[in-house]
Amino acid sequence: EGRPGVAATLRALNEVLGRPTSLWVKESAARNLRHRDFLAPRAALSAAFPGGQVPAEVVAGVTSLGGPGVLAVQACQETPAGLAVQVRRPEAFQRLLGALPGPLPPAGTQGTWAVLHCPALRGPTALRPRHLRPLLLADHLAQLLRTQGVSVCLVPSLDEASREVLRQLHLDWPSSSGGSVLPDTVSALKRVLAQSPYATACEKGPGRATLPEDIICKVRLKNFVEQQGLVGYDPNLDVLLVTEGKLQALAELQQAVLQCMVSNLVALPASHFPDGSCCSIVHVVSCEEEFQQQQLDLLWRILDPGAHTALQKHLVCGPVKVTNPSSAIGADQYFQLRKQQMYEASVMKYGELVQDEAWTEVIDTLTVAAIRFEMLSTSHRSQITLDLEDSSISTKGTKSGAFVMYNCARLATLFDTYQQAVERGTYPPLPPASELKYSCLREEGEWLLLFNYLLPFPEVLQQAAELPAPTQGIRITANTETVCKFLIQLSMDFSSYYNRVHVLGEPFPHLFDQMFARLRLLGAVRDVFHNALSTLHLPPLSQI
């Protein structure tokens, strides 16, 4: 029957009701999961059926639900809240946990590709915290796309000045090979520019305005926008002074597109990039850079009027407000400040243990987690505020990256403890997953972990990696905060369960079936942690 999924089950439930719109919702709150797993709300039923009365044959159809990827139904009944469904939970545990563990399969988009462009790396000044937001977002989005089988080109390449701080933040970004950028491509762009009806030479001489030496010509962007009927661009875009640097930026983008087209001569499926383009080019920019990137977008459209340039998308990050700085702070200073705060918080919690050399890597990883969650757990459109004197968001509470890493480390400690006990002969080795008795998993926290996290995780990754077509203009919205929020909520529910349930009990044979089933469940939870953290370039910690 294949791995069950939320989307497949909801589709099957809606088909039974015979309605084109989605009536069913998946429950996630613990208090509701005590009674039901899916609900067709009363208001929706009243609109779909006369008097809100669901025919008996429809209820019977729901009860006998089945098919590939569909959870089997235990019971379906009318309640004041609506039509409530509870699935066969032991069977769901068996189907999800009884198979051999392995990496999640990509979602069928192998051979597709995308170019992610982050102009923050082209800035003339040193990187600041506001530059880190689009960089970390692009890095995370690249990893999410790769989980779906998409090949990703990241542009521009790193220069020496930016490399160290981004290495500390675990950014997987290509480095510059040095030298001038693609001189042949720049020369070709200059030739096209000389023939463009939108370009005019810059007149120099007495009485003329003094222009910088690197200005090549002027391009009338406003005329191009009006003649092409383009929407979504800033109305203040007018004349652009084209420089060598702008052409080099376009040359690097052009080269990335050509490399991807040679490597992947396959059109992207409409399911992933709904406009049906043969490629996807996404400019990940801060709101401060948006105007300049729109200029570059239009210049590229003028010089290379191909399908790929016509379908450029802009993913815009909201502002990053820094409070309590003694002066303007650089990205490297921000990292060192958060690292010092993480060290101090760890000393308060663990004392002299933190002096051990092994903790150096732990503190570094916790710092990266703190910064990534600080930057990425909020919708990319919203403003984020960094209070540099308040370390609590980074080091304390249930919504910090440190909290997520702590719970991941608790799982590692659990399995290390179990393995050591096996080697001492206290417990027998864990039997094969297909032989375990999952009917022993009756604690409500166990179903919560499976139903809210293990079951939907592949769909969570898929939704987080979607790049939808813009509703109007050139801006797109992505669900880039999804994985961070998923990990935070998973950590909270796992922590609650782990604090309440003693997984490694007394070594009595009659207790082994339940212990083995719980270890298999938590092993699958550990795999979800590891797979989700890998999209953030965060290695799992074996100790805290």
Automatic annotation (TrEMBL):
Top-rank taxon, per record: Eukaryota
GO biological process: arginyl-tRNA aminoacylation; tRNA C3-cytosine methylation
Species of the source: Galbula dea
Domain called DALR anticodon binding: residue spans: 404-544
PANTHER family for this protein: DALR ANTICODON-BINDING DOMAIN-CONTAINING PROTEIN 3 (PTHR16043:SF1), DALRD3 PROTEIN (PTHR16043)
Any Pfam family the entry gives: DALR_1
Name of the molecule in the record: DALD3 protein
SUPFAM superfamilies per the UniProt record, alphabetical: Anticodon-binding domain of a subclass of class I aminoacyl-tRNA synthetases
Lineage: Eukaryota, Metazoa, Chordata, Craniata, Vertebrata
Gene: Dalrd3
GO MF term set: arginine-tRNA ligase activity; ATP binding; tRNA binding
